[in-house]
Amino acid sequence: MTSAPLAARLREVAGPLFFPVTAFGPDGTVDLDVFRAHVRAGTDAGAAAVFACCGTGEFHALTIDEFRLAVAAAVEETAGRIPVVAGAGYGTALAVQYARAAEEAGADGLLAMPPYLVVADQEGLLNHYAALAAATGLETIVYQRDNAVFTPETVVALARTPGIIGLKDGLGDLDLMQRIVSAVRTHRPDDDFLYFNGLPTAELTGLAYRGIGVTLYSSAVFAFAPDIALAFHRALDSGDDALANGLLDHFYRPLVELRAKGRGYAVSLVKAGVRLQGLDVGEVRTPLSEPSAAHVKDLIEIIASGRTLLEEHAADGHAAPGGRA
């Protein structure tokens, strides 16, 4: 854990938010050594924060002991250089247990994922996240998606809840997000509530979210192609439309179209990408399954296309966008 508040550190990020995969060995157990190497590589490559054991990290498939060990490993590998945020989910009682395990492991904050299975009303959701935020001293980001979709009024209430510092949107309804941002700004004009684009390949909608003031985003691509993810992030920040649009056209759009070809590919395709870069993080745990060989071949070609574009951009006199994984 670092001494500075999580919210303050996230307001000043200069790179993508890194969601590492959780490494599993040949016998299916968590491989902490490989996981450490993955976190270390992402930290060294320029990640702004590590979100450990969240959706991409197969939170749903981890026991609480595995979760605690993995979060602690991420904390040790980052060594305070960047914040570590851990996932927490399921019903309130279990979510609180995971939150406390994350706090014991030294995490800086929580990403509160939707409750398991049930579809609750707004009052129930608010009570759930308020209880989770009150259970530890960790700052909490609430994840909107699936069965946890909020009205603007509920987000205003969340923003007023001690310990809750932001909303990550995985729904993609920009009309709703604009109304949420407006409502919080109207009712809490002095508040620095944080917003995150949390769609599976957030870069594809990065320009649209920036139009409503949302600049923070999760980057699954950073897990397997940090050079491409960093180049795109810098292009957005610097107004390099040629590079941003080139990557959207020749890397991100094809990647999203490939991801749509298989259920669970938002996780399993990322994990395949990490293996392609030379780090054997193992396969996904059931009930997820591995991408087909043909789709892995497509992924290889998409990554190559993205890197070719970076090389051509550099050859045209632009600064090189950093090293590869």
From TrEMBL:
<keyword id="KW-0456">Lyase</keyword>
<comment type="similarity">
    <text>Belongs to the DapA family.</text>
</comment>
<dbReference type="InterPro" id="IPR017655">
    <property type="entry name" value="Dehydro-deoxyglucarate_dehyd"/>
</dbReference>
<protein>
    <recommendedName>
        <fullName>Probable 5-dehydro-4-deoxyglucarate dehydratase</fullName>
        <ecNumber>4.2.1.41</ecNumber>
    </recommendedName>
</protein>
<dbReference type="Pfam" id="PF00701">
    <property type="entry name" value="DHDPS"/>
</dbReference>
<dbReference type="GO" id="GO:0047448">
    <property type="term" value="F:5-dehydro-4-deoxyglucarate dehydratase activity"/>
</dbReference>
<dbReference type="InterPro" id="IPR002220">
    <property type="entry name" value="DapA-like"/>
</dbReference>
<dbReference type="InterPro" id="IPR013785">
    <property type="entry name" value="Aldolase_TIM"/>
</dbReference>
<comment type="pathway">
    <text>Carbohydrate acid metabolism; D-glucarate degradation; 2,5-dioxopentanoate from D-glucarate: step 2/2.</text>
</comment>
